[in-house]
Design a protein that fits this description.
The complex is a heterodimer of chains A (382) and B (200). Chain A has 382 residues and is mainly alpha-helical. Chain A contains 21 helices and no strands. Chain B has 200 residues and is α+β, with helices and mostly antiparallel strands. The radius of gyration of chain B is 31 Å and the shape is elongated. Classes of the chains: A mainly alpha (382), B alpha+beta (200). At the A-B interface, helix 7, helix 8, helix 9, helix 14 and helix 21 of A face helix 1 and helix 4 of B.
Chain lengths: 382, 200
């Protein structure tokens, strides 16, 4: 065997490894993946989602790994399989909503239904960002899918983006979950900027009225029916949400309710996270569009927060019992982080002011407002 | 142990750098080959560009060669009735279905064209990044057909966004009202039950 043959053999062997296909983009993606793992493991930000997402990013950006492509026969590889049938077919976001329904107590919203309006007002950023995206040369479908990030509703963002702009799926999802985890950093400055000290001192009742089990059972039926009539486009999400909630509140299927809110939700979260992470391949992610999405997503989130605050201020002009505008920040549906932030900041100004349950109501309003906004946007393209 | 870790880290770094340089040289060789190949190509160049683009594309990249207005195809042999910065009106001595068939074929490869079949016209809406907003093919019923191509306009975007934002409020307001009514009825019925004396 000659030296050149040995060298050819070595080069041949080398090319079967991933080392021969390394690029700077791959290394940047590793860093992004590791950064998300750091946020989740060390800082404790949304670990249930950021661990699978971060590891998905890390794993799929090794060259030649048979994870996110197709086999020679055209069959999807492991993570591609999850992605295709779970996300592109819109299965996982709907299942997440089913689980969320089984975990959500709508009591604070039923006790104080006017909080629904804060959830509607907080969708302001969705429409403002839409305009911004069009100005930057994005298509209307892309603009709609990016706009919904501000609602701070991960599954809705995934659902809408998979329908309208699948190429932005990874960027949109990552932006949505990242900003959701950064609620304590993003929302307080916006709140302080838009409210006066007197407004922040508005005291609210520490408790809400008791909500009967019958009211709780009726809520998913009423809400589901109205949404189905007015915005049928979003029923795959809202239908599942209300179905899960009915199972919880009816009390007759505790085993099912416990399973969908527990083990099923965990499995779906893992599959969703790892699929989203895997979709962030260097060639797709490191392009100007996803990076713009990431930047505008932050602005979107801030405008949505501002929208909630403005809605409270407008409501205060007409109602007797004034609402503390700090609650407005919870109009985005980042449960439970946003209500907690409202509670903490409310008590910074007045130690006797308990805003948590009121903020929870606004947040639950946002969890209906965000799919409603998504439905309105989807209806544009039907 | 620390020294061993340090040595491993250095070896790994060298290995990665080596791999990077080799892969870069392979990539540059392949790129050079590709440049030679594309230089000889003339036909289908635009559609190839369209394939490479991730996300929505401009319709001008995929429609057949011929006259265009802001990237929208214009069916030949028509009479230009009116041309303004915002719209172009053309008339054809052809029945409506033939004009529609031509436009459907012309926009076959454009994925962001949305067809709406209305009573008086077929409205082809651009949902991509092209500069035209819509192509309206009027159903006059006679041997002549009028086609109106409109430019993207901000009034449409702002109006539709405003309506949809208000729509979110309307949905949640309806829900609020419905909840209040349901709660009112329920409370009343519970009170009535309490007031009713129990049978002896």
């Amino acid at each position: 065997m000659s030296w050149s043959e040995i060298l050819d053999l070595l080069i041949g062997t080398f090319q079967t490894t991933g080392l021969g296909f390394m690029t700077w983009k791959v290394i940047v993606m590793w860093c992004i993946g590791l950064f998300f793992l750091y946020l989740a493991i060390v800082k404790g930000f949304e670990p249930n989602l950021l661990v699978p997402i971060g590891f998905g990013i890390f794993l799929v950006n090794f060259p030649n790994t048979p994870l996110f492509g197709f086999t020679e026969d055209g069959h999807p590889q492991l993570l591609q399989f999850f992605y295709k049938y779970g996300i592109i077919w819109e299965l996982l976001p709907c299942l997440i909503f089913l689980g969320l329904g089984a975990l959500t107590d709508f009591g604070p919203l039923i006790a104080n239904p006017k909080m629904l309006l804060i959830g509607a007002g907080a969708q302001l950023g969705v429409f403002v960002t839409f305009t911004g995206m069009i100005l930057l040369g994005f298509s209307i479908k892309e603009a709609a899918s990016v706009g919904i990030i501000g609602g701070a509703d991960g599954p809705t963002t995934i659902y809408l983006t998979a329908r309208l702009a699948p190429h932005l799926l990874s960027a949109n999802t990552l932006a949505a979950y990242s900003y959701m985890s950064m609620v304590p950093l993003i929302q307080p400055p916006v709140m302080r900027l838009l409210t006066t000290k007197e407004e922040r001192l508005i005291r609210m009742k520490p408790t809400l009225r008791h909500v009967s089990p019958t009211e709780k059972v009726l809520f998913p039926l009423i809400c589901g029916g109205i949404v189905a009539l007015l915005i049928p486009a979003v029923m795959p999400l809202m239908g599942m949400f209300m179905f899960g909630n009915l199972m919880r509140e009816s009390g007759v299927v505790p085993r099912l309710s416990k399973t969908i809110g527990g083990p099923m939700m965990d499995v779906v979260t893992v599959l969703l996270g790892v699929s989203i992470g895997a979709s962030m391949q260097a060639e797709v992610f490191l392009t100007p569009k996803p990076l713009t999405v990431f930047g505008l997503g932050l602005l979107d989130f801030m405008v949505c927060t501002a929208g909630g605050i403005f809605t409270v201020k407008i409501m205060n002009l007409f109602i007797k019992e004034k609402i503390n505008p700090i609650i407005g920040i919870s109009g985005v549906s980042a449960i439970p982080m946003s209500p907690r932030v409202a509670q903490v900041w409310g008590q910074k100004y007045d130690k006797q002011n308990y805003l948590l349950m009121h903020a929870m109501g606004a947040c639950l309003g946002g969890s209906i407002g965000s799919p409603a906004a998504a439905g309105m946007l989807l209806a544009m393209f039907d | 142990m620390k020294r061993l870790g340090f040595c491993l880290a250095i070896t790994l770094t060298i290995f990665i750098l080596l791999a990077l340089s080799i892969s870069n040289s392979i990539a540059s060789q392949e790129q050079a080959k590709e440049t030679v190949q594309t230089a000889t190509k003339t036909e289908g160049e635009l559609s190839q560009k369209a394939k490479k683009t991730i996300g929505p594309i401009d319709s001008s990249l995929v429609i057949p060669k011929g006259p265009q207005w802001l990237g929208a195809p214009i069916m030949p042999d028509g009479t230009k009735i009116k041309e303004e910065p915002g719209r172009l009106i053309t008339e054809y001595n052809l029945p409506y279905d033939k004009v529609l068939t031509w436009y459907k074929e012309a926009l076959q490869k454009y994925p962001d064209a949305r067809y709406r079949d209305w009573k008086e016209e077929v409205y082809i809406e651009d949902q991509g990044v092209s500069k035209w907003h819509s192509i309206g093919i009027h159903k006059t019923g006679g041997p002549k057909t009028q086609v109106v191509i409109k430019k993207d306009n901000w009034s449409w975007i702002m109006a539709t966004l405003f309506i949809r934002f208000v729509g979110v409020f309307v949905v949640l307001l309806v829900l609020w009202v419905a909840l209040n009514i349901a709660i009112f009825i329920m409370r009343k019925s519970i009170k009535e039950k309490k007031v009713k004396p129990a049978p002896a």
